[in-house]
Design goal:
Layout: E1 14-18, H1 30-35, H2 37-50, H3 54-60, H4 67-87, E2 95-98, H5 102-109, H6 115-132, E3 138-144, H7 148-162, E4 166-173, E5 176-182, H8 183-195, E6 199-202, H9 215-226, E7 237-238, H10 249-259, H11 266-275, E8 280-283, H12 289-294, E9 302-304, H13 309-322
Parallel strand pairs: 1-2, 1-8, 2-7, 8-9
Antiparallel strand pairs: 3-5, 3-6, 4-5
Length: 327
């Protein structure tokens, strides 16, 4: 039995969202690190927990495309920016959400999980995901111009035709759904989608995330999660698998396990934020993909990225003004 929170009356109208894989790039946060020592201190904390230099990977790009290293780098980047935001007196968000890996970042920001435990978990998560499917055997692709139902029907048909796995993996926005599965099945789905007038973009990833092929990884991750200390979040966190908010620690862990082999319901998560009264969205981490997606929501008045000093300062002042913190 889960302990879903009934829709809370939130204090404020700002949501923070935390990005997942795909937002990494060599040299990330270098400018912010020159201005704020807290950036490097946060990366040092992660490095000490993991036993390798997380900052060096972030700056050089070496191993940055390897899932086991990408994940702790991106999580650390998000929490470094989160800490700077707090240090500068930024508005406390009313609610949090994270895209895939970003859900771990959101839980750290919410006080549910320590940074050191989180980076260990996502480093292991990346290793398990990489090992679940042999190199070159899996694929992911973004389908543009088809409804969720059309993508689901296409995947079901191709799975039946091939006897292989291909499933909707990320519901990112209306008309933008990522599919994942075996390489052959994904390529066949792409071909049929194009015949039906849709566009398709093969994603440069080696791991077919959020589909049934990740079930073995999820089972092993469950063991690590069972042995990790979680606290009830101090800020509500919208979960990927069901676009709901949970207060119960066991339910949070279960959702993280299911997240590996079930789709990221980002469209529905954004709708949940809207239903909670969110008017402003701040993307806390590298890149601005989630901020751009948030701008599509009718209820969102503005969305901000924070990965450069200018963007961070703009977000700080705009949110403070919007939430009535500045005269």
């Amino acid at each position: 039995m889960t302990a879903s929170i009934s829709l809370p009356k939130l204090q404020g109208h700002t949501a923070f969202v935390f990005p997942g894989q795909g937002s990494q790039k060599a040299g990330m946060l270098a400018e912010l690190a020159e201005q704020f020592s807290l950036i490097r201190h946060t990366f040092d904390e992660s490095s000490n927990a993991l036993g390798f230099d997380v900052w060096q990977i972030a700056q050089s790009g070496e191993q940055l495309d390897q899932t086991a290293y990408t994940q702790p780098v991106l999580l650390t980047a998000s929490i470094a920016i989160w800490r700077v935001w707090q240090e500068l007196g930024g508005v406390k968000p009313a609610v949090l959400a994270g895209h895939s890996l970003g859900e771990y970042s959101a839980l750290v920001a919410a006080g549910s999980l320590s940074l050191s435990d989180a980076v260990k978990l996502v480093h292991l998560r990346g290793q398990l995901m990489q090992n679940a499917v042999a190199e070159g055997q899996g694929a992911m692709a973004a389908l543009l111009g088809k409804t969720d139902a059309e993508v689901e029907a296409l995947c079901a048909l191709v799975s039946q035709q091939t006897g292989q796995v291909v499933e909707a993996a990320n519901y990112n926005a209306a008309g933008q759904v990522v599919i994942a599965g075996t390489k052959d099945a994904v390529m066949q789905a792409i071909a049929q989608a194009k015949e039906q007038g849709a566009k398709a973009i093969v994603l440069p990833v080696s791991v077919p995330s959020h589909c049934a092929l990740m079930q073995p990884a999820a089972e092993k991750l469950a063991e690590a999660l069972a042995n990790t200390c979680f606290n009830a979040p101090l800020i509500p966190v919208v979960q990927n698998v069901n676009a709901q908010i949970e207060a119960d620690v066991d339910s949070i862990k279960t959702a993280l396990i299911q997240q590996l082999y079930r789709p990221v319901r980002w469209t529905q998560s954004m709708q949940m934020l809207a239903s909670l009264g969110t008017e402003y969205v701040v993307e806390c981490g590298a890149g601005n993909v989630l901020a751009n997606l948030a701008k599509r929501l009718p209820s969102v008045k503005a969305a901000y990225a924070t990965d450069t000093r200018t963007r961070l300062e703009d977000a700080l002042s705009a949110i403070s003004l919007a939430e009535g913190k500045l005269a």
